[in-house]
Amino acid sequence: MQEHSAVHIIVFVTAVLLTGVTCHGSPREDATGVGVLLPLTGDASSYGQKGRRAIEMAFDDRKAQAAGLDRKLTVVFEDSKGNAKDGVSATQKLITVDKVSAIVGDALSAVTLPAAAVAEANRVVLISPVSSAPGITHAGKYIYRIWPSDLMEGKAAAGFAVSKGFKKAALLFLNNDYGNGIADIFATEFSGSGRNVVLKSAYQDITTDWRTIVTPLASSGADVVYVAGYYKDTAAILRTARELGIETQFIGATAIEDENLIKLAGTATEGIVYPLATGFDAASTDAVSKAFVNSFQKRFGYQPGWMEAHAYDAFMLVCDGVKSSKGRVSGTRIRGYLDHLGSYHGVTGDIKFDENGDVIREVVSSG
Question: Do residues 143 and 292 both lie within one domain?
Fold first, then answer.
C-alpha cells in the first residue's frame, strides 16, 4: 500500500473496499519506572491498544537484553482516554505517585501538549511516538517526538491537491490542536495562483449531527475536501457524504490509517486519498525491522503498523536513556542522553533529534 525506502516517507494511498526521580521525589532502590500514557479507552482506543501491545513486547525484549541495567525496570500504564483533562491527571499521577522520570506518550497531540507542560515543569522526559501538532516543537527542553510535525504532512497533502489541478478546497477539521494545526497548514500551502479555500468548518470530537457539518459541501463549489481528523470522525463524514450524494474528492490525514476506518465507513471509504507520514516499512529487509515484524506477528497474530512501530521505538529510546543514567536515574540524565544521541537505528529507521526534540528525517512525497 506504500512505497518503501530507508528515508522518512510521505506516500499517498487511496482507500479501497516503569520508579524514577523527579524534583518531587526520590527513587526506590529496587526499580526504575517508565510511564506510558495512551488512550486505552474511548474513541482513539485503537491507537492506544496498539501502542500498548508494542510497549509490552518492547518491555519483554528489554528484560531479555537487561545487561547494563542496574535496576529492575518497571512500566506503568495510564489511560488518557483521549482527552486533555484525563491525560493531565494521569501525567500528574505518574510523576507524583509513581515517580517516573520518563513518560512515553501520548498518541494524540491534543493530549500530548498539556501533558508536556506538566512533564516539563517537573523535569520529566516525555517522548511521544506519533503526536504531530506543530506546537510540540516548542513544548520544552524535556519534550521529544519521533513523528514529524504536521508542517510536513500538511504541506504534502496540499501539494498533492495542487498537483491534481484542484482549485477550490473545503476544509473539515477536528477542533483541537491537531485538527486546527494541520488544517491551517493545508490552507496556507494550497491557497494562491487561482486556488482558494471556499469552506472551513470545525467540528467537535463529540459531534453526532454530521449532516450539519457535511451538507454545506454540496453548495460550496469545492472540487476537493480535506478532512483533518481521526479515523472515527472521518468515517462518519465519509458515510454522511455518501448518503447525501456528495462525490467530491476527499483527502484525509495519516491518522485515519486504521482498520476501523473501513469497519465504520464501509464502501464510503472508496476513493479517499491520504498520506502515510511514516518511516516504518513492514516489508523492510532491514534486520531490526524484520525481527520486530516477525516477533510481533508471532505474538499478536497480525502485522504491526505505524502506531506499534513508533511506540516500540519510543519505549526503547527511553530504556537506553535509563541505561545511560548510571546510578541515580533522573529526567535530566535521560534528557542528556537524548540530546547527545547522534543517531538511533530503530524499527522505524534512523532517529535523530534536533535542538527542539523533533525527529530529523528526510521526507519524500509521491503520488
Answer: yes
